[in-house]
Coth protein-domain-containing protein (Thamnidium elegans), 560 residues
Amino acid sequence: MKLLAITTGLISIAFALTNAADVTYAVIAFPGSSDSVAVNVAGQDFPLQKSPMCGNLFTGVAPYGAEYRYAIIGSNGQKVENTTRHLAESATTTGNEFFGRSKTVYDIPSLPRAFNPIYPALENAMSRDNEISTIIVNADMNALDTILKAPTEDHEFAQVYNMSYISHDAIYNFEGAGIKNSGQSSKDMAKQSLKIKFNKFNKLSKDRLFGRRSFKLRAEANEPTMAREKLMMDSLAAAGAATLSSNWVRLFVNNQPFGLFLMSDDSFTAFTDNFLNGGSAMNSTGLTIKGNAMDPTNEANMVYKGPNAASYNSNDVYILEDKGRDPTVSKKSYMGPVIDFMDRLNKTVIGSDAQTPGTITDLIDSAEHTMIHLVMSFLSGSWDGIWYQASNYYLTQNRDTKKWYIITYDFDETFGNGVEDDKLMTTPYQNYSRPDSQRPLVDTFIKSPYYDPKFQDILKTIIKRFFNVRVIKPRLEAWTEMLKEDVAWDRSLPFRSPGDKEKFTVKDLDNMFTTVDSRIGILEWISNRTTSVCQQLNFNDTDDLPALPTYEKQVPNPTA
Ligand SMILES: *[C@@H]1O[C@H](CO)[C@@H](O)[C@H](O)[C@H]1NC(C)=O
Ligand SMILES: *[C@@H]1O[C@H](CO)[C@@H](O)[C@H](O)[C@H]1NC(C)=O
Ligand SMILES: *[C@@H]1O[C@H](CO)[C@@H](O)[C@H](O)[C@H]1NC(C)=O
Ligand SMILES: *[C@@H]1O[C@H](CO)[C@@H](O)[C@H](O)[C@H]1NC(C)=O
Ligand SMILES: *[C@@H]1O[C@H](CO)[C@@H](O)[C@H](O)[C@H]1NC(C)=O
Ligand SMILES: *[C@@H]1O[C@H](CO)[C@@H](O)[C@H](O)[C@H]1NC(C)=O
Ligand SMILES: *[C@@H]1O[C@H](CO)[C@@H](O)[C@H](O)[C@H]1NC(C)=O
């Protein structure tokens, strides 16, 4: 069949003949101990062998098949995949696939850039958006079970003897990592979020994956689409901001299915170098605190309350996340510079331009960068975010310039998820702050005659470029197609922890688009939010802006 397409002479035919018997097939599968794995091409089974890279990856060479399926063959017959896979005519390898999933790599429409990156980010497969990778962990199951049975208690890491991260084009193996649950309120859920830290039980190695020394596996236990957080991170990146990255993975531990997770950034020493300096060590990276809110009187609103650290409930509200490369930072003293930040923010002159001494650019690195984070927090209705609840942001000091970077994170509660007041979807940004709150950082921009027009310009640009139904709808449609089999699988798995059992089904993926069980749909949120901003500011979402200048990736200056 393949030969019929060849019309360019003998050499091509000879090449095609060689090619025709030369496809490497590879599939991740969990066969029984006496089963074997095969690929079925043109009605014939060709056995696959266990890969030396991973005991659950089966590979082998078999003839080219425009159509093929994998099969698990046991003594009681065989289990053949339900859907036919297709191979491009020129393909010599399938890449690593997953048994029972109909497709491996999807066409996901890209997000157009609103602004070029303000800081050079470490760009790699950590932010991939067109496939679901697989993580296979062999761990101390007793220790992990102990954690999962009592998730709200403090636990040490359980040992990961070895693990593999397998995407369609790569396999990475690690030994001596640690695994435990992660998060705060997410520990109350019956599907726990997890974190994996490399080198935990193998102190001599310097393992990293995509430049990360640890990562989180976010369960998205209260989020029926599992896509909100990813959409926000990708949107921040497309808007030019420094952001955490993520990609979807299915997780297996000791051959047991744990479910679908969003693998995303975790903190480790100077983790912000990955967002701010292309992954190169930046000697000037100082401390990072994490802003958190417990309730309206204990929120990380950056309001100056005098020089005494005891006034700030720092253990719960301004939490030390990372010391960076600053040897002077300690648990006892870190609030000093943070209080200095709030004092200076308090004295910032609202209304003057960036060149005037005493303005916000003396204090934070890039007014534009901070405004992008605020605009996205507002547009997505991130009600537990930096603006509305004064929570879920990192504040990182640059030791050389003494300026601070602001990076927001934690986006499961966005695009209508968990929102108490639907009015947040239509409130103009001038009134978006939580009632009776103080938001000095936000006010610095939106109450300034100098910055407010710039803020509006960022808002309009993001809406015209990508935050609109025209751009987001096809992306959500493609993601729904890609996620639906794994979401159905995830929803069929038993819960492993006590706590809230969210009984979502694959049908709840409708929440990508519309309201389900009074939870506003992602696309519905974007549509209504965009419509009201466009009315309030009298513009439309047509992308009639000039093309962005070509982005020259800045080469970071590697230091210690
Ligand atoms: C094929 O579909 C049936 C019915 O939905 C299901 O029970 C079976 O597990 C599927 N087989 C594979 C290999 O996924
Ligand atoms: C991974 O660890 C398991 C359990 O200790 C062991 O059986 C297996 O051989 C290890 N695999 C590799 C590739 O080291
Ligand atoms: C500014 O500082 C004064 C005291 O110095 C305090 O009363 C006020 O609440 C502070 N405001 C903000 C927004 O930090
Ligand atoms: C904000 O709310 C106040 C009080 O409800 C109202 O008077 C004002 O017009 C609102 N501002 C905008 C821009 O909608
Ligand atoms: C979104 O806007 C549409 C059209 O105006 C409206 O019918 C729908 O109720 C709005 N959604 C919500 C959650 O308010
Ligand atoms: C959108 O606004 C521009 C002006 O910025 C105008 O030229 C254009 O006609 C408008 N498009 C629509 C569809 O209203
Ligand atoms: C990094 O900072 C440390 C401590 O401030 C300093 O001693 C060292 O010289 C710096 N290294 C480089 C390469 O700038």
